[in-house]
Amino acid sequence: MPEMQTIMALFEKPRTKDMTRKVPAFGLLGLIFALVEPSVAVAQSRDLQPMLDRLQRLERDIRTLNIALARKGSGGTPALVSGSIQAAPSNSTGLARLDARLGELEQELRAGTGKVEEMTYTIQQINQRLEKLVADIDYRLSALESRPVGSAGSASRINAATTPTGVQQVVPGATPAGVLGTLTGSDMNAAPPAGAGGPVAAIAVSPVPAKPVSVLPKGSPKEKYSYAFSLLQKAEYERAEAAFTEFVDRHGDDPLVGNARYWLGETYYVRGQYVKAA
């Protein structure tokens, strides 16, 4: 029996040695596959991640543009983004589809941005026209409300029209004028000339031209324009005319000169001076 055990041991030793050689080989191959497969997946995910991030940013921007267009009253504009990113494909065909979708989203984003800019410009133009129209209406209404029913000029014209021509008005309590005497030419020649002891002859002195008084206060052109416009709102049309005229003469290069000329014409128009207003 011991001899049989020895023989069996001799047959089993080579077999055990072969098995020990095969087991490490299979284990090494499995370890290689286990290491290579995750590295390939990680590399693919790293290549796709920047593109996915960019695509998500574009979708967020397009959603924001859709909301802005809806708030501005675009009237049922269809959504630019129809879906969202579910999962990242792991092959070249999926990359091509993502690239094409990314290009479409960029085009839609540019189109939406152009629409928003066009609508913003249109709204700005409408606001400017409305502001000018409201300012003009407010001024005309305030001028009509503050205009007196009867002015001094109209009263003087009425008095002049009712007074008959050639009738002298007599002030109560005053002495009527009369003839004190007559003086002939010989009496005038006999009168002594004015000498040293006589009255001093009057010296004709030409009047010194007065310095024109400025209607506008000191300050910047904008402050002067506001002051002239306030006179117009108070229905002081003559002073407003002088203020706007002085503003145009002194600040001919200022951007407010056009408005000043317009309101200067309005001062003439309100007072019935249509030729000057034109």
- CATH class term of the domain at 217-278: Mainly Alpha
Question: In CATH terms, what is the fold-level topology of the domain at 217-278?
Answer: Serine Threonine Protein Phosphatase 5, Tetratricopeptide repeat
The residue-averaged pLDDT reads: 68
Which architecture of the domain at 217-278 does the CATH hierarchy give at level 2? Alpha Horseshoe
What structural class do you assign from the helix and strand content?
A: mainly alpha
How much β-strand is present in the residues? under 5%
Low-confidence stretches: 13-23, 76-89, 151-167, 170-174, 195-202
CATH homologous superfamily grouping of the domain at 217-278? Tetratricopeptide repeat domain
Helical element count? 8
**Separation, N- and C-terminal Cα atoms:** 143 Å
Shape: rod-shaped
Strand and helix order: HHHHHHHH
Could you walk me through the main structural features you see in this protein, from its secondary elements to its overall organization?
This protein is mainly α. Among the domains are: about 10-45; about 215-278, Alpha Horseshoe (Serine Threonine Protein Phosphatase 5, Tetratricopeptide repeat), CATH 1.25.40.10. About 65% of the residues lie in helices and about 0% in strands. It is built from 8 helices and no strands. The chain is rod-shaped. The termini are far apart. The model is unreliable at about 15-25, about 75-90, about 150-165, about 170-175 and about 195-200 (pLDDT under 50).
Quick description:
The protein is built from eight helices and no strands.
